[in-house]
Amino acid sequence: MKSAVQDYEAIKTAVESAANEHGEPHWFVERRLAAIDAMQDLALPEMQRYDFHRWPLMDDMELKFRRSDKHLADDLPQVDNQIRFVQVGQTTVAVNLPDELADQGVILTDIFSAFREHPRLTEKYFMDKVTKYNENKLTAYQQAFLNSGVFLYVPKGVEIKQPIEAYLIQDSTVKQAMVSHVLIIAEENSQFSFIQHLNTKGDETNAAHCMVEVLSRANSHVHFSSVDELGKNTYSVLHRRANLSRDARFDWAIGIVNDQNTLGDITSELIGEGAHSESKVIAITTGNQSNGINNRVVNRGKHTTANISQRGVLLEKSELIFNGIGDIIHGASGANAEQENRVLMMSDQAHGDANPILLIDEDDVIAGHAASVGQVDQNQLYYLMSRGIDKELAQRLVIRGFLGAVLEEIPLPEVRQEMIDVIERKLEDGQHFK
Amino acid sequence: MATLEIKDLHVTVKEDKGQTREILKGVNLTMNTGEIHAIMGPNGTGKSTLAQTIMGNSTYHVTQGDIILNGESILDMPVDERARKGLFLGMQYPAEIKGVTNAEFLRAAINARRPEDDKISVMAFLKELDKNLDLLDMSKEMTERYLNEDFSGGEKKRNEILQLLMIKPSFALLDEIDSGLDIDALQVVAKGVNSMRGDDFGSLIITHYQRLLNYIVPDVVHVMMDGRIVKSGDAELAKKLESEGYAGLRDELGLKVNLVDDNR
Predict the structure, then answer these.
(1) How far apart are CA A39 and CA A51, in angstroms?
(2) What CATH number is given to the structural domain containing B201?
């Protein structure tokens, strides 16, 4: 064990020097070091009915900053007047925020600039209010080895009509973990939607730790969608959490269509009275990949509403586990929590499960769940085929219908189409395998 | 000219308790493009079963006889292949599919009939679509909605006819296309079907009531009872049935058939 400790000391020294060279504020360097200390005693998070302990998630213990080729972002759609943030690896390629929003106090910048320029906001909220760095080994790793990310701040009362889009592109032309963070603060009465795109360029085997923290202040209204399209050699941890204050509304609409193993952990903490969250997730697995997804809602405040809807499709020899966790804390009277977890098996060699887990410590609540593991709807398939559409395409369309509840949640038609295209590609790959 | 022949067709279904029940008991019917045939009959006599079996619905099992399209048996063909060979079934209960727009679905159906390197162009598709929407008094907005999702009963029926007009099959089997339609909607649906009439199109119209046949005048009317066609005639036969009822015909033919709607 002595050598492990020595290793950690060596890692700390290296991280400290890399962080200082990177020009990071003192408080953040300290946090990195504290996180490395914490890692030594922390365990990996437990996930019900799912084992990911052997994935290569924390092989990279080196903090290293390097420039990525910005041309790796050349194939992004070019849209005029888009509110957009683009990062390739650790290199921020574009930040496009209209002047009138900047004038109203909206901040959209890379996470390290935010640490330097907005310490008042970031020191208080980064991995402290929503997610604690010492929850488990992965959260500690996140804080210790953070190397990219974006910060969004929307002040009180500001309403942004157009969605804010962030393209976070993993640079796997080199061997290095992506440890990325999206920190969003929605002040009281603010209103906006945020769309995240995760992609991979290059074929190196790497881990991707993509964390999202959202602080939804009283009466704010935030919609978060994500198209997760990480590459076939990327093992990913997607930890996403939102804290909701009084009467806040926060929704997730997430499409997990990565090509390699993924651990998804999505949480809405409804702290303030009257908060409301809809948590919608779809996932498609192919090949030998395995996805384990926890979707958790925690009703803490009175009269809070938290619904979960998850839909998954399994092809080939893949595995997909959906845990829907509804946690109603004592005192959350009048809480409402419904969940629906459904998976569709397209192959008898796949392994899928949909587990509703209700933890209720309060009497005056309404809670319910539905779960199913099933096959393609034969009526729908027949209808499409009766129009001459071949079986494979008909199946893909039926599957899209099955996923439609989440698809229609995505606010921009272009992004919805993007998601549909990814789904089609993945389903086609899976179908041609057999 | 295309020809559809039904020869001595016997069809069974599996019931809940695992027993099989014979629904069609030897149906014979031949129709050519250029002709409109109507099949009438009381509930539960196998009219819908006939249409579903021709289309290839796997719920129905052919135990005897054959279905021949242009000289070729289609019994072993999957549903999609039968459709591409020229059959179309306008359904009583069209499926709803979220996430797939009506327009996308229509294009996929048209392209399914065309070679990989000759897909319909967007312009040609939209032109054809506009023309048919106009004819059916449908708004463009209907095509951007998800397939049949939250459509009213009447909208679904119109949408079936829109598909018919876009796909242009040789034979359209229309299963109770008039049910649940008010008189205006009925006229629109009839207008759509009538616009297809010509040497290259035939239709088998299944209906419970004669009303629809005032608007789509058939060349041949068949009456089905207890899994068989018991009488065929011209459009006058439908009118006679309307005034005398199925019981009158049954007694005239001396059939021992129970007509109460209790066996579906």
Answers:
(1) 20
(2) 3.40.50.300
